[in-house]
Amino acid sequence: MALTAQQIAEQRKDVEELIAGPDVGFAKALFFGKFKASLLYPYPVLPPHHRAAADEMAAKVRVYAESHIDHMRIDREARIPDTVVQGLADLGLYKLTIPAEYGGLGFGQQQYLKTMEVLGGHDASVAVFVNAHHSIGVRALCLFGSKEQQARWLPGLYDGSKLCAFALTEPEAGSDAGNVQTTATPTEDGSAYVLNGTKHYITNGGIAHVLTVMARTPDPSSPKGKVSAFLVTPDMPGFEVVEARAEKCGIRGTATGKIRFTNMRVPKENVLGQLGRGLQAALTVLNYGRVTFGATCTGHAKACIQAMTTHAKKRVQFQQSLAEFQLVQKKVAFAAAHCFAMEAATAECAAFIDRGAPDYMLETAILKVFATEHLWTIVNDTLQVYGGKGYFCDQPVERWMRDARINTIGEGANDVLKAFIAVVGCRGPGVYLKGLQDDMLGGRWSLRKLGQSLGVVGQLAAPWLTTGTPEVPVTAPELKDDAYTLARLVREFGLKLPHVFMAAKTEENFAVSELVHERIADIAIDLYVSACVLARLDSLLGLAGENGPVEADPHADPVAGKYFLKLAFRRIRERFAALDDNDDASLLESARATIVKF
């Protein structure tokens, strides 16, 4: 059933509450045809002492993983051994993001992600297990907990004896996070809340010792109430583990639980953050999780590249190694280019977090979609290069395929995030252009009123045309042409959107034009990631120019970065064309004709 205008207005109001704040981010500026270079340049580099600490931890984890984490056994037995859980604790892995004052290492996001990239390249189950504890578990307490809550709950969360989980998802609330049905009813004396409801698909949910739970609390301004966050523990009466370890397709080692609350009393002191602001807390925490996707997907992509190229050089068919065939080389080049880009976009997003940037919600959504979609292609290509050998369980490739599939679903399904990217990105330009739209629909746009109409055109053009082509400030001469191409594409994006809005005619039409949203999001994704790639390329080429030959990182080859730009620019142009020339009407007709038959 199609949404009514009132339902669309209510959804818009909910979104605006969640994204309230200054529109200052790099990605949002792209929708105006602007390039905020100061937010990406210079390319982020950790201070030497921070880098040394991060590299030391990553090296320890790599050695431990190679010698003690049997990824094949973990997948086969669907369990991370207790010895591994404790071994990671002994390395200090659970201390990474906990502030030093509570016994942690106080790592920033860029430091933390170096370790997560290692885990992502070795075993996705372990990476998800650790990240559920850190990015969406401990992080909620560090960001929104009071000093009293932090002092009470953080000690013990770093030695392996206690684990964290984040409980948002329910049978009726997945990507639609605002549809939480779990209720938290205040007691008559106001000393506590009584929770009732069910949560499922919760990583660590059935084994965690501290959980951040989202539940709906009464609110006088909203008949359905608003979502609040609560700290709960399994020893609270009414807490029930319905299923500790659900059997699933991939990341089988993680304990994905289903839990139920029945008249569970939670003291008011356990409200995390502001009452009624739970969704804002959830989205903030998910930003960290989405950036971590960038790192783990990068690590996974690097493992695929090594496996793909090694096998391709050894395997001989038709008197040639597979590595000599162009269609195999195409897969290797795609993987190298997109791995380079994942690493660049991850570094920029992590730097936004570390320096306390006010607006990076769109960037983290873009990174999550980009990294997970292209990793899926890379894993699929790796399996294709391996051929039948890769399909069997004595090789890791079939597990990589199963593990990678959840990435496009978890922490925001990619289809939903693409709509989010398009709608949130278009919000600023859309608000400005609404006056123009009202003038058109009100009959004030006509040849008989040419002067008035031209005035409206001037208002339409002002934010875009007066700025000209933006500057992309690369210093390496060999990047100047690519920088100019990107700048022209950014400007074209800003100029194109008003025509898209006018073609939709009404806000309601645009709100449900998901095929248009997808194209807009795809353009924004490739524009943003291309900007990150150019910043990384400029940094790499600058270092080589200043210091002479540097130690080669096989995944930091400028050739791969430059090839990514060629691919991305081609995709952007194709999607610009598809905004005007597409088969959407036939697509929808065919889909609806099929749907009614079954």
Automatic annotation (TrEMBL):
Keywords: FAD, Flavoprotein, Oxidoreductase. Residues 55-160 form the Acyl-CoA dehydrogenase/oxidase N-terminal domain. It comes from the Bacteria. Residues 276-422 form the Acyl-CoA dehydrogenase/oxidase C-terminal domain. Its cofactor is FAD. Belongs to the acyl-CoA dehydrogenase family. The keyword Oxidoreductase applies. This is Acyl-CoA dehydrogenase family protein. It comes from Gemmata algarum. SUPFAM superfamilies: Acyl-CoA dehydrogenase C-terminal domain-like, Acyl-CoA dehydrogenase NM domain-like. Residues 165-264 form the Acyl-CoA oxidase/dehydrogenase middle domain. Pfam families: Acyl-CoA_dh_1 (PF00441), Acyl-CoA_dh_M (PF02770), Acyl-CoA_dh_N (PF02771).
